Amino acid sequence: MRGVVFAGDRKLEYREFPDPDPGHGEVVVQIRASGICGSDLRVYRNGAAPGRSMPVGGHEPCGVVAKLGPGVDESQVKVGDRVMIHHYSGCGVCKHCRIGYTQMCLQGNHKVYGFSANGGHSPMMLCQASMCIPLPDELSFAEGAAISCGTGTAYMALVRLGVSGRDTLAVYGQGPVGLSATLLGRAMGARVVVVEVDKDRLELAKRHGAEHAIDANAGDPVEAIRQLTHGEGADATLDCTGNATARANAVKSARAWGRACFVGEGGTVTLEPSPDVIHKQLTIYGSWTFSTVGLAECARFIADRKVPLREIITHEFAWRDADEAYRTFDQGKTGKCVLLFD
Prior knowledge:
Elements: E1 2-8, E2 11-16, E3 26-36, H1 38-46, E4 61-68, E5 82-85, E6 88-89, H2 95-98, E7 111-112, E8 124-128, E9 132-134, H3 141-161, E10 168-172, H4 176-187, E11 191-196, H5 199-207, E12 212-215, H6 221-228, E13 234-239, H7 244-252, E14 254-262, H8 273-278, E15 283-286, H9 292-304, E16 313-318, H10 322-329, E17 336-340
Parallel strand pairs: 10-11, 10-13, 11-12, 13-14, 14-15, 16-17
Antiparallel strand pairs: 1-2, 3-4, 3-8, 3-17, 4-5, 5-9, 6-7
Helix pairs in contact: 3-4, 3-9
């Protein structure tokens, strides 16, 4: 079996791997779609840490169950099931694993598929049966791949923020996570304001739920958001960039008694605790992807409310064209990009 591996310096390689064979409690999934995420760009650009080899990439897998290992309960998952894959595994028994947050496993030995174990950029993927989450029939495999990280991450952040129709929601960054937050925030009833530096992504946001789109290169986005909210600031803000300035602005543009959330990975932020947080009685959340339960809930929300997730998947590529797919996504002008398999 061949799989796509991040070789660093913006290079990909198709390497040979043994065909997966499921052990106890495991399944093999035939991959039908595998998403590309901003987190992938770090290893795409820089490669593995010194002394570490990379597995098959891709942590947004979606497909059809092809083979069951011994001990798998067919009432849980069976051959032919359409599934998304929660791309983490842990000990399975600690308090975090037991509520589906295996990425927070207290044993410290969790795997991240696509980074520390083989991911979805290959025709077949081995995973634990407990990682398989039903994909609603109403959704395509490409949509399932998007939900399996980026869109699911946006959904859980909005749940943490308690977004509703009473809120003005400001979303910083309109890459796949931020664009998903715009789409979902609108579906939850919020008035959505977005902040972005790329004009193509600003146009995407305006087409998919943003009532106001602010170009951060054209002026102070904090002041612009205050002008849109009678001088008070947004009820809820979400940073999807990991950029220090955007993070700080997400906090500063939230109103008194408001809420802010960080989901963009990496980087730093500098705040003045008294004016930015304490004197505003602000609540700041961190939100790290989602649980297995949250992943299923997100997919069901999108299917039941007919959220047009398909429309923000702007580019689809054949698996054999992964190099072109990553070059395109690396330019920072697209919506969601997905690899498709025959």
